[in-house]
Design brief:
Rossmann fold, 361 residues, alpha/beta, 2 domains, single chain
């Protein structure tokens, strides 16, 4: 029996990372029905219940060392684990897990990483030293690959693939319909537009006022629904702007799993998002989307499918977003066809991961 340990940003109620873990565990079980999976999680009990795997506390160094010592393969990823923008601690934590796998002479596979930004020269050196020792690396976009090459990672170590969530299957529409029914839409026949943003980007009055103005203008012709992809943070937007929004603006504040969220997004007509996985969910659901950048990973993903952000959080432009939505309305079938074509291309890229996993497991 192959024993696999998975390390990533798991157990934090982040829909995108939950979806990554779901697709990884499903793929591993498809390859080998007897595989034993242990996830390093912030909430082990919840992870075990949701994904039918073993899980341990990611912060318990002794337990982590024991489980890695007893495994055959260590999977690190996916997601933006190796970056030093959000904090210095993040990159040190994930590198320490990889080092542990190397120390115990395990097969270490970095799967679908979004690498960077790497600001500090010392971190670039650390990443280079560690990654040149692992079994193999796949990255989810070309820019991540180019960054690895620029800091001295050996070309033969890395390949370009895509985000594992591209392997998520579309779901029956009824789960999403039930969420929408709970919102008690005043006019259910209106088209539905989802907004998936990071609440932290709209803490100042100026940005918040622009967001409210945009939502209220869009609500003149859509049911506008704020969707929290990172539950702990994104639901706070409800308290921030609820009293300032007009009718036909709604907020989802309950917790749901990633498959239910996929069903919800499939029920939308358009999505406006700065959360990376809101855009990826939309692509999988074949729902046209407008991207807003807060981090290079948004631009990297959109560039992969020949798109670009309409604006950034730092230069938040509701007029540009609304203009893009109007363009979609006038060319909806064409935009949707482009989405479907891009989806097929990225699903093809996932085979890079599949081939490596089949070799390792």
């Amino acid at each position: 029996m192959n024993k696999v340990v998975i390390s990533g940003f798991y157990g934090f109620h982040n829909i995108g990372d939950e979806a990554i873990l779901l697709t990884l565990t499903k793929k591993l079980k498809d390859i080998n029905a007897n595989v034993q999976i242990t996830v390093l999680s912030n909430n082990p009990e919840e992870t075990m219940q949701k994904f039918d795997v073993k899980a341990i506390n990611r912060s318990d160094a002794l337990k982590v060392a024991r489980v890695i010592m007893g495994c055959d393969v260590l999977l690190s990823g996916g997601g933006s684990l190796l970056q030093d923008v959000t904090s210095a601690r993040s990159i040190h934590y994930y590198l320490s897990i990889i080092r542990m796998g190397l120390f115990f002479k395990k097969k270490v596979f970095l799967i679908s990483h979004g690498v960077g930004p790497l600001i500090r020269a010392s971190n670039k050196r650390r990443v280079k030293r560690v990654l040149n020792k692992v079994q193999c690396i796949t990255v989810r976009d070309v820019k991540s690959y180019e960054l690895l090459m620029s800091i001295g990672v050996k070309p033969e170590k890395a390949k370009v693939t895509t985000d594992p969530v591209m392997g998520l299957e579309c779901q029956p529409l009824d789960a999403g319909e039930r969420i929408i029914e709970k919102l008690n839409l005043k006019d259910p026949k209106r088209k539905k537009l989802a907004i998936a943003i990071r609440q932290k980007d709209f803490r100042d009055d100026a940005h918040r006022d622009l967001l409210v103005q945009m939502a209220n203008r869009l609500a003149k012709r859509y049911n506008v629904i704020f969707v929290p992809f990172y539950y702990k943070n994104d639901t706070k937007i409800f308290q921030d702007i609820h009293d300032k929004t007009d009718e036909h603006v709604y907020f989802i504040i309950d917790k749901y799993n990633s498959l239910t969220f996929m069903s919800l997004i499939q029920n939308m007509d358009i999505l406006v998002g700065s959360r990376l996985h809101s855009l990826i969910f939309s692509l999988v659901a074949e729902v046209p989307f407008v991207g807003i950048s807060y981090d290079p990973k948004i631009e990297n993903f959109l560039e992969t499918i020949q798109m670009a952000p309409v604006c950034s959080i730092h230069d938040f432009r509701p007029d540009a977003i609304e203009a893009e939505i109007s363009r979609y309305e006038q060319n909806y079938d064409m935009v949707k066809a482009q989405i479907i074509h891009s989806k097929a291309d990225l699903i093809e890229l996932l085979k890079v991961n599949d081939e490596i996993l089949e070799t390792l497991i």
